[in-house]
Write a structure and sequence with these properties.
This protein is α+β, with helices and mostly antiparallel strands and about 240 residues long. It has one domain: Alpha-Beta Plaits (2-Layer Sandwich). It is built from six helices and twelve strands. The protein has a seven-stranded mixed beta sheet with strand order 9-7-8-6-3-10-11, sandwiched between helices. A three-stranded mixed beta sheet has the order 5-4-12. α2 crosses α3 (about 50-65).
Length: about 240
């Protein structure tokens, strides 16, 4: 269900859950060396130095939020590059991080092939290959896996609903990392992008940025402005 619709139906509960999310996640992100760059509505932009930092952070997040009613997450992790252009963050890898999130089970973690290659050297981790989807708006080939160790649930492919290109899809039943997560069934989409930093030339404009809407009304209505901009970004991409 869309963020805007849910916040309209039960704004007090949505605001309370959003605040609970910040309260729980910020200390975990800091503990694992992550930087909380910014919030865009129901989205977050974070920065980590290593694959392991991001993955262990994601695992701890899932362990913590499963004890909170209605705070159910899917998390997707991708390793790649991101470009900072002014205050905006752009790049194909940012899109990939968001696109692989739907391939995670509720309470689970989906990862790209780059992240899987890093984890393959660690015997503590087990993963399962999910497929090679043609992700919508993504130019590069991406293989998707889910983490099945650490008590994480395996993805049920019949329940996956992801944005794909209409053709070309087939199932097969000091770097930094990108994570995208969304709450299932109630309230918010959370995007975590933990990616390598780059800087664009002034003439280089590789993508369109949709900035958060500014609320000109009462401060308590900020929630709606954030939600609408987030939903618009999701629909456009």
């Amino acid at each position: 269900v869309g963020f805007t619709k849910l916040s309209a139906e039960n704004e007090p509960a949505a605001l309370s859950l959003l605040e609970k999310q910040r309260e729980l996640l910020k200390p975990i992100v800091e503990e694992h060396g992550g930087s909380w760059l910014k919030e865009i509505g129901d989205g977050l932009l974070l920065l980590f130095d290593t694959t392991k930092d991001a993955v262990h952070c994601a695992i701890e997040i899932q362990n913590i939020v499963k004890e909170v009613e209605n705070l159910n997450l899917r998390i997707g992790i991708h390793q790649g590059e991101v470009v900072f252009q002014g205050s905006d963050v752009i790049g194909d890898d940012v899109n990939i991080a968001a696109r692989i999130e739907p391939f995670a089970a509720e309470g689970g973690i989906a990862i790209s092939d780059r992240v899987n290659a890093s984890l393959a050297r660690d015997p503590d981790f087990e993963t399962k290959f999910l497929g090679k989807p043609k992700l919508k708006g993504v130019g590069q080939e991406v293989k998707v896996y889910c983490i099945t160790s650490h008590g994480l649930p395996e993805t049920d492919m019949s329940k996956v609903s992801a944005k794909l290109e209409p053709e070309g899809f087939q199932w097969n039943v000091k770097n930094t990392i990108g994570i995208a997560a969304s709450m299932i069934g109630l309230f918010m989409l959370i995007n975590f992008m933990f990616l390598r930093i780059g800087f664009a030339d002034e003439e280089e404009v590789p993508s369109i940025a949709i900035l958060p809407f500014e609320n000109k009304g009462a401060p308590e209505d900020d929630f709606y402005a954030y939600g609408i901009s987030s939903d618009l970004i999701t629909d456009v991409t």
